[in-house]
Model the fold of this input.
Amino acid sequence: QVQLVESGGGLVQAGGSLRLSCAASGIIFSNYAMGWYRQAPGKQRELVARITNGGKTNYADSVMGRFTISRDNAKFTVYLEMNSLKPEDTAVYYCKASYYPNFNYWGQGTQVSVSS
Done:
């Protein structure tokens, strides 16, 4: 049974920082690309950051330079370090594990709220 469990969300003031974690089980973690997505109320879910099994990263333009994705294969965990948070970063953040061509798993999400 595959499980992705996010943690680290919360309420923070604008300009603050949070670190999200996503712990995976039931998959060969090192084989999977891992991503962080977010969904704000009334909006579609969007990619925030992604890291391949080889460690290559890519980011949404809106978070470039403020967020950093990383992974620890020994701990089966992917992280999202979020700095200089803005109110527009408020959303539910989801972790996703992907293995080509069609193995995709999602976590349950963690709420991030940024007050102005």
Remarks:
- Residues 14 and 23 are 27 Å apart (CA to CA).
